[in-house]
């Protein structure tokens, strides 16, 4: 029997900077949990290559950005291990072993993968690559090689965690109790809408506020946010339920009374959209300023960032080796041990 214990494993694809959707969706949760459980945060550069194989320089550049974003939101390198996926060969090895336990039909049915393939026609054309179709298998290896049991992710990742659980169950039933069964933990704010009202905030959708945006960028983006289209003049009665500015006030406002007041004045046509947006800009800057300040600290100290990632990777390598030994024993691959 496996000894009972919990460990956090989560990760990000280094394909762009992190935005406030990531912040409310999963980063805040990570920061909160890092003191409670042993925490591993993977910079998933190998996974990023599955749909960026022709842009290796983009992946490389964003590794640093992601690490700085993590540190900026308050991930503490003394509490959490930040590491690089490509430096853990055991993940690739485990992916091969797991690939026997998954059918192609099951991968093709994975809702997240299905949606992504549909969105990436320009990369894959008519037929998707083996690597991309199989990335849930590799993600199962990411999680289990570190004995991750708690996986804080955004809602879109749930089918991937479910697929990982299936692999774990199948592995354990064939080779004996070897792997820990992970569980997804979704933050309170499951999915953050974009400034344009789109259900999802995303880099490719151009509707995101980044953690590293300047005051001017934040102001420009908020000024262009979608408000109640029925409200043309300031004293028209507004409907905050269909206004993105009101939606963001709820995320960024510290005082519930202020939020209530804003909505009331909007409904009564007493508060204009411009005043409302200005207030929001101020509130967003207030929340992001400490994050940006920490980010600036690390931007000025690239050696320190590199050191954190290197130390984290070393620690992760040790853990992965230990798990691999257990896995190989279970699979009767322990020849020269
Ligand atoms: N697929 C995740 C995303 O796109 C990133 C990721 C890679 C991940 N490996 C992971 C998340 C392991 C959780 C656990 O955001």
Automatic annotation (TrEMBL):
Family named by the database record: Belongs to the class-I aminoacyl-tRNA synthetase family.
Protein name per the record? Tryptophan--tRNA ligase
The EC class name is ligase
PROSITE patterns given for it? AA_TRNA_LIGASE_I
Q: Which reaction does it catalyse?
A: tRNA(Trp) + L-tryptophan + ATP = L-tryptophyl-tRNA(Trp) + AMP + diphosphate + H(+)
E.C. designation(s): 6.1.1.2
Extract the signal peptide range.
Answer: none
Query: GO MF annotations for this entry?
Result: ATP binding; tryptophan-tRNA ligase activity
This entry carries the following GO cellular component terms, namely: cytosol
Please give the biological process terms from Gene Ontology that the record holds: tryptophanyl-tRNA aminoacylation
Alphabetically ordered keywords of this record: Aminoacyl-tRNA synthetase, ATP-binding, Ligase, Nucleotide-binding, Protein biosynthesis
Q: InterPro entries of this UniProt entry?
A: aa-tRNA-synth_I_CS, aa-tRNA-synth_Ic, Rossmann-like_a/b/a_fold, Trp-tRNA-ligase, Trp-tRNA_synthetase
> Superkingdom of this entry's organism?
Bacteria
């Amino acid at each position: 029997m496996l000894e009972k214990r919990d460990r956090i494993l989560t990760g990000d694809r280094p394909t762009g900077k992190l935005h406030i959707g990531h912040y409310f969706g999963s980063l805040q949760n990570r920061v909160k949990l890092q003191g409670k459980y042993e925490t591993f945060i993977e910079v998933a550069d190998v996974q990023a290559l599955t749909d960026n194989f022709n842009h290796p320089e983009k992946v490389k550049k964003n590794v640093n950005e992601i690490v700085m974003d993590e540190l900026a939101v308050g991930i503490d390198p003394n509490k959490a291990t930040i590491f690089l996926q490509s430096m853990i060969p055991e993940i690739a090895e485990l992916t091969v072993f797991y690939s026997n336990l998954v059918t192609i039909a099951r991968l093709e049915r994975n809702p997240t993968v299905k949606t992504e393939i549909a969105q990436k026609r320009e990369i894959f054309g008519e037929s998707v690559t083996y690597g991309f179709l199989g990335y849930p298998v590799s993600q199962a290896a990411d999680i289990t090689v570190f004995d991750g049991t708690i996986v804080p992710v955004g809602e879109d990742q749930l089918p991937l965690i479910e697929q990982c659980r299936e692999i774990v169950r199948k592995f354990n039933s064939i080779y004996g109790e070897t792997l820990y069964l992970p569980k997804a933990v979704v933050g309170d704010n499951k999915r953050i809408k974009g400034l344009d009202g789109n259900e999802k905030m995303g880099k490719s959708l151009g509707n995101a506020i980044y953690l590293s945006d300047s005051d001017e960028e934040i102001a420009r983006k908020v000024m262009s946010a979608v408000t109640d289209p029925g409200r043309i003049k300031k004293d028209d009665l507004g409907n905050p339920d269909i206004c993105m500015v009101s939606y963001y006030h709820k995320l960024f406002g510290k005082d519930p009374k202020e939020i209530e007041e804003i909505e009331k004045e909007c409904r009564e046509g007493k508060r204009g959209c411009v005043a409302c947006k200005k207030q929001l800009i101020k509130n967003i800057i207030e929340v992001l300023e400490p994050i940006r300040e920490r980010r600036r600290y690390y931007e000025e100290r690239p050696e320190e960032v590199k050191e954190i990632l290197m130390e984290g990777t070393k620690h992760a390598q040790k853990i992965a080796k230990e798990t691999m030994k257990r896995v190989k024993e279970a699979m009767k691959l322990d020849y020269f041990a």
